[in-house]
Amino acid sequence: MQVARNRRGSSIDLLVLQQTIRGRVPEGLLPYVLSDNGDDGHHWQRLCMQCPSSPSSGEKSERTTMPGGSNPSYNKGITLVHEVGHWLGLYNTFEGGCKAPGDYVNDTPFQLTASVGCPIGIDTCPQDGADPVENYMDTSDDACRNHFTPGQAKRIAQIAKQYRGINL
Q1: CA-to-CA distance for 149 and 127, rounded, in angstroms?
Q2: Which of 76, 80, 90, 141 registers the highest number of CB atoms within 10 A of its CB?
Q3: Is it the case that residue 26 has pLDDT exceeding 70?
Q4: Is 31 within a domain?
Q5: Number of domains within the chain
């Protein structure tokens, strides 16, 4: 295993790293944990459908979001699960707000905006179903998120096969 370290690498440095390692990792996923990426975000990922033409086929997360990290709301590693969900073709549960097609998964209730905290039972859209704040593809606190829906699992399998060549 090779480890690349750069205390405050720029996005250009990260792009060079991504281009260097692309194709060397089976199935193409390479999670990177950054000590500091120079902004106030804690994750980033391109949707899987963008990957064939993109040199970046990795997932980056701040170290603070990993288990035991210093971010009290996001320190159980769920950010990595969420970002790999994007890598496998899932959208955020609040994609499109209360308007169809939403996240393109029929069994995920509509949600107006990203969640903060763990507001279980909140319902921000007129369609049936409370906001899916316990879904990995929301942005609620790590302690709140615990599942993908069956429809999301089906989409993951379809997208993984079509764009990644992975049979799940």
Answers
A1: 17
A2: 90
A3: no
A4: yes
A5: 1
